């Protein structure tokens, strides 16, 4: 039976886009699928997910950081260069046909900040190997990206502790 790869998109302003993508990666890896995750924009090295993958799944789920730490504290050009390098890696991984599931975490910002032309991203999605599932996350997905996806979920923020001044907590936000 041939697998029909899906483009799965988690967008919206509520919490849970990236954690759902990591959950999907975990589920896939548990079923023996070959998984690779590329995290754009943020790229902190010691997140809970990075630590968990390194200790619990050494060599099983590949994780690449294509960010520069916490976003706009960095020079825009540095952020852009890291994201572009990540995009080159994503292209290579997608076309390699070596994976069953690839997570492109925070990819929507590459379109939103005009780091990579939307057209280039959409056309690569179309050219990917048929069996490859892609999971894309990020706020404000563009209409064309939504159109190209098979499964789109909008995380809607009903309440977030940030609004009452609570800072990011270890194990919950990172
Ligand atoms: P997570 O990684 O926890 O699944 P996410 O991927 O949905 O979150 P992002 O837009 O990538 O969310 O932002 C990541 C950070 O922003 C997280 O620390 C998250 O808790 C926080 N965040 C998400 N939604 C909101 C919101 N509505 N208001 C304030 N902060 C938020
Ligand atoms: Mg996220």
Description:
- This protein is of the alpha/beta class and 174 residues long.
- The chain has six helices and six strands.
- The mean pLDDT is 93.
- The structure holds adenosine-5'-triphosphate and magnesium ion (MG).
- Adenosine-5'-triphosphate binds next to α1.
Short description:
With 174 residues, the chain is an alpha/beta fold.
Quote the distance from N terminus to C terminus.
38 Å
Ligands in the model, by name, code or SMILES, are:
adenosine-5'-triphosphate, magnesium ion
Strands, total number = 6
CATH superfamily descriptor: P-loop containing nucleotide triphosphate hydrolases
What's the domain count?
Answer: 1
Largest sheet: 6 strands, parallel
Question: Could you give the order of the helices and strands?
Answer: EHEHEHEHHEHE
Give the overall shape, derived from the CA principal axes: globular
Walk me through the topology.
Blueprint: E1 7-11, H1 17-30, E2 35-41, H2 48-56, E3 61-67, H3 76-96, E4 101-105, H4 108-112, H5 118-127, E5 133-137, H6 143-148, E6 151-154
Parallel strand pairs: 1-5, 1-6, 2-3, 2-4, 4-5
Name its key features.
174 residues, alpha/beta, Rossmann fold, 6-stranded parallel beta sheet, 6 helices, 19% strand, globular, binds adenosine-5'-triphosphate, binds magnesium ion
